[in-house]
Amino acid sequence: MCRWLAYGGDPIAMDTLLFKPCNSLIRQSLSAQRSIAPTNGDGFGLGWYGHLERPGLYRDTMPAWNDANLRSLAEQIHSPLFFAHVRASTGPATARLNCHPFRYGRWLFMHNGQIGGWTDVRQGVERSIDKLLYKHREGSTDSEALFYLLVGNGVEEDPAGAFRRTISQITDLMAGEGVTEPFRMAAALTDGRRIFSVRWSSDGRSPSLFWAAGGRVGCTENSIQFGPGRGSVLVLSEPLDSDNSHWTEVPEGSFLTAQSGEVTVEPFGP
Amino acid sequence: MCRWLAYGGDPIAMDTLLFKPCNSLIRQSLSAQRSIAPTNGDGFGLGWYGHLERPGLYRDTMPAWNDANLRSLAEQIHSPLFFAHVRASTGPATARLNCHPFRYGRWLFMHNGQIGGWTDVRQGVERSIDKLLYKHREGSTDSEALFYLLVGNGVEEDPAGAFRRTISQITDLMAGEGVTEPFRMAAALTDGRRIFSVRWSSDGRSPSLFWAAGGRVGCTENSIQFGPGRGSVLVLSEPLDSDNSHWTEVPEGSFLTAQSGEVTVEPFGP
Amino acid sequence: MCRWLAYGGDPIAMDTLLFKPCNSLIRQSLSAQRSIAPTNGDGFGLGWYGHLERPGLYRDTMPAWNDANLRSLAEQIHSPLFFAHVRASTGPATARLNCHPFRYGRWLFMHNGQIGGWTDVRQGVERSIDKLLYKHREGSTDSEALFYLLVGNGVEEDPAGAFRRTISQITDLMAGEGVTEPFRMAAALTDGRRIFSVRWSSDGRSPSLFWAAGGRVGCTENSIQFGPGRGSVLVLSEPLDSDNSHWTEVPEGSFLTAQSGEVTVEPFGP
Amino acid sequence: MCRWLAYGGDPIAMDTLLFKPCNSLIRQSLSAQRSIAPTNGDGFGLGWYGHLERPGLYRDTMPAWNDANLRSLAEQIHSPLFFAHVRASTGPATARLNCHPFRYGRWLFMHNGQIGGWTDVRQGVERSIDKLLYKHREGSTDSEALFYLLVGNGVEEDPAGAFRRTISQITDLMAGEGVTEPFRMAAALTDGRRIFSVRWSSDGRSPSLFWAAGGRVGCTENSIQFGPGRGSVLVLSEPLDSDNSHWTEVPEGSFLTAQSGEVTVEPFGP
Q: Which residue in D26, D28, D39 has the most chain C C-beta atoms within 10 A of its own C-beta, making it the best mutation to test that interface?
């Protein structure tokens, strides 16, 4: 079980969300509140949009709480849209190329969850990835494979449909192998403008997922503040502070879309 | 607060103590039972004696639970005397050269604790290190500095005296700087034959320390077993399993010596 | 282009070959003599046999010349059979799981060379790996994939045949994709008793390969010495010193077998 | 011997200088043209100014040519003033905290060269560092120590004087220890507005140093182009391409100041 956070809105210094809140993502790397695995110390990653269409990517294998580079990048870089992830491995080795987010062209993807019976279904999944996309496959995680399936399944034109088709493909492969472990996901995907997020699982026990929206985001005395109006959206594994008025839980089986500060949550199933 | 373990006795595969017990040192790296900081993920180290007078040293900055190399070394290498340490930094950066154990000639040293007001007294401590020994100073930790003071204070001839003189030197420097934070230590030192260990603090709140002794050590079903007779000694931050019959707590203000399977514990103060 | 070295014979400290000779493998990591790429700084690995059937494995992403751990392990560990490898990537990322040697059960494999058009044929190669073996696939290199094909093609019963079948499989996939780049290899494989090595390429321009044999191996004044008699075998990318009397080049299209100090070299082609 | 580069002018993407030129700094990490040590693979670092007074810092122990994070940061981050450094160690361990540039407040410092007899004079140098500054000392390099001496010697008010006083302090300590090896430096220092650089050595054999200035900097077909007018300055260990019209060598014994696109070079000696 990993922890992640997606932000879209006015450009802000990334440490506003990664380091400053009392339950910041970096704090969650050492001691998450709503996760089966409290320690998310098996690498981390940061993806952000700047001057280029292609997002920046910074991933490393140290625990996030321990990386002076991350602290410096997060305080220096202002971005209107960024993804951050702290990893607790469900098996695959700790290596930069197994760290989230994953990048393809102008897309970023990150995930918390697991494809049940991954070692059994993996070869079938690898085979299902589009041949041209497969050239970009670097690691051995189910999450990176999921991403390339999504891209191949038309995420550009129809993101919810791409998730639906990908989940069907994988559950078919799981059924073919007789896998009984569940498939669970809390995933986030972006093209640099819109953030899409899915909370879904085959057994109705999806990983936690929350969102918040409002005006300009800041952090005062370790608590998140939203200015008046709107434009800022947060989608994340767990709240960054204890102010429950901010955070809305995403229900099981949901597809969330965030664009220009607006959040819509729709029922989702394969 | 760190966690550590010292073993002396018949050569055993190091994973017997590092990986197999239910509360193994590697398990403690993720979730220590008797430590203020449950996560000891800021690097680790292993020092062991083999064919040479000079011990081997393997230190890295990953969390110990995450390092496939450590697992392989621990199952392959048999050693009659080894030190292992998992680190929770009290300030200095996570770098191999700040990881314990430290080595000088045929000596190894590791430590759990802290010199109060370290940033204030540090320059005085650095100046107090013997000039020839100072050439070996690599990092910025109080622990490595402590080690070179001990060596310079005659650890070869009189280990307890060297600890006494070193503690006096440091408490004098602390007093000179008006430091009020305590000086606490649970340290282990070896020349490859004898293990010396000190549990002491300026405020009577020393880090935990235990020992156990018996015949050949093994691990069955995650529990430590000692064969009949004697020859094996363990000195460590916390018990490796819940069998309280094995583990003896070292009292506050003690100097422990282990040699040829015999353990003596004497009152100790500066 | 990488550099590697395999040793079989009386147990020796690994630094005898890795660090001491004038053109030691570690020296080759910084400045190889007979390689297209003089710098082999994209990770390294060490596999050795000890008390267990399963060999030990130590791999890291630093340049070999820069790793204090490697120096310590190489001087401490005595082994009757070990593989060492310094890597110059032909594309896949620098990660521990892309470093050689690769291990499966009691087998080790390492490689210098390249499957031409790897990104085009890769998906076909992944699909050809035996389903049970595929669970062990961790990285994205052609070398690791080659290894699992060899294992699946019966390396246990017929090593030369397994190489032949594997090469045919791959050249068929290359032809199917219209690949025109060559397939070149200088590979070494061991079960802990016998060392097998292949020098072959589709274009007759295989990477360099040498062997040497004799009595007990030592290193004096940076030069390799063999004692009288026999029992020791070295197979390696390039000579460790300038004494040409030691080193025999393996011809293009050869299969080398080393066992109990005896070396046989036979013509080899798919 | 290391290689470094300092840029000041209009904000540019850092990869313009770090990756794109034919003899880019990253290329120099693998194969420098004008250095005793062609391989500068013992870590690297990047310091840059953005929205804050305090510069950003990104340092790692991998060879620069091997770090996907560096590539991404260099293409994403635009900066009006940045320092980049690739390291070839003269002794001290490869660790992030031994990598250049070093940072203090709004200052950055980087260096190529060596204090002769460093292990002998080190303890004296450590003692000479201002007590408050010493709290920031993290590693064991002569370069980091040099930096804190410079800060303590009034670099804020009188940069050239601070260099002069620091060199005198060090040469006195060297004389006191009877050191005969030379003290050589090609150093760069910045407060975020001005770049100061010194080329000096005790034996008249300073490391190479060059500068270039002009209008807006770009890189076309691996060659550096300056637009018309002025505003951009480069100070660096060796030229980035073979167009000799750009690059002016800084003479032995010089103090260079770059501000608002103007470069002045004055004779310098302690």
A: D39
Q: Would you list the DSSP string of A48-102?
A: E--SSSSPEEEEESS-GGG-HHHHHHHHH-EEEEEEEEE---SSS---GGGSSPE
Instruction: Decide if pLDDT at A36 tops 70.
Output: no
Comparing alpha-carbon positions, the chain A residue that sits nearest to B93 is A66
Q: From edge to edge, which strands make up the β-sheet containing B56-60?
A: B56-60, B44-48, B78-86, B3-13, B232-236, B210-214, B248-249
Are D39 and C39 within 8 A, CB to CB?
yes
Strand partners, C232: C214
Give one word for B222, left, alpha or beta, with left for phi > 0 and alpha for psi -120 to 50: left
End-to-end alpha-carbon separation of chain C, Å?
22
Which secondary-structure segment (H or E) carries D173? helix D159-176
Return the closest-CA partner of residue C163 out of C179, C146, C144. C146
**Is A215:A225 a contact under the CB 8 Å cutoff?**
no
User: Which two structure tokens, joined as six digits, stand for C265?
Assistant: 């070299």
Omega of the bond prior to C101 within 30 degrees of 0, cis? yes
Question: Percent of chain C beyond pLDDT 90?
Answer: 85
Measured distance CA(D67)–CA(B60) in Å, rounded: 19
Interface subset of D 187-246, CB within 8 angstroms of C: none
- Alpha-carbon span A112 to D138, nearest angstrom: 36
End-to-end CA distance of chain A: 22
The answer to whether the CB atoms of B96 and D95 lie below 8 A apart is: yes
Domains and CATH numbers, chain D: 3-267 (3.60.20.10)
Whole-Å CA distances, C150 to A85, C108, C157: 37, 11, 11
- Strands, E assignment, D14-77: 44-48, 56-60
Q: Which amino acid type is present at position A10?
A: D
State how far the Cα of D250 lies from the Cα of D206, in Å rounded to an integer.
10
Nearest to D235 by CA among D201, D191, D188: D188
How far is the CA of B68 from the CAs of B60, B132, C59, C189, in angstroms?
A: 12, 37, 9, 22
**Cα-based distances in Å from B11 to B7, C49, D216:** 10, 18, 67
Q: What is the CA radius of gyration of chain B?
A: 17
For D37-40, which contacts have Cβ atoms below 8 Å and span 24 or more sequence positions? D37/D1, D37/D88, D39/C30, D39/C31, D39/C39, D39/C41, D39/D88, D40/D1, D40/D2, D40/D3, D40/D64, D40/D86, D40/D87, D40/D88
User: In a 3-state reduction of DSSP, which class is residue A110?
Assistant: strand
Q: For the residues of A156-182, what is the DSSP string, one character each? A: TT-HHHHHHHHHHHHHHHHHHTT--S-
User: How far are the Cα atoms of A255, B233, D153, D206, D262 from residue D190, in angstroms, in the given order?
Assistant: 50, 56, 15, 21, 15
Q: Hey, how many other C-beta atoms are within 10 angstroms of the C-beta on B201?
A: 18
pTM attached to this predicted model: 0.95
In sequence order, what are the residues at sequence separation of 6 or more whose Cβ sits closer than 8 angstroms to the Cβ of residue D146? D109, D111, D115, D166, D170, D185, D187
C38-71 tens-digit pLDDT? 788 889 999 999 999 999 999 999 899 989 999 9
Strands (E), D56-204: 56-60, 78-86, 102-104, 107-114, 184-190, 195-201
CA dihedral of residues B101, B102, B108, B110 (deg, nearest 10): -50
| B185 within 8 A of B199, measured Cβ to Cβ | yes
List of chain C residues whose C-beta atoms are within 8 Å of the C-beta of residue A117: none
Subunits close to A (at least 3 CB pairs below 8 A): B, C, D
Please state, in angstroms and rounded to a whole number, the distance separating the CA atoms of residues D234 and D238.
11
Q: Which two tokens stand for residue A47?
A: 């993806």
Q: What is the ipTM of this complex?
A: 0.93
H or E stretch including A34?
none
Per DSSP, the three-state class of D111 is strand
Q: Are D165 and D153 spatial neighbours (Cβ–Cβ below 8 Å)?
A: yes
Name the least confident of B196-205, C21-30, D209-218, D224-233.
Answer: C21-30
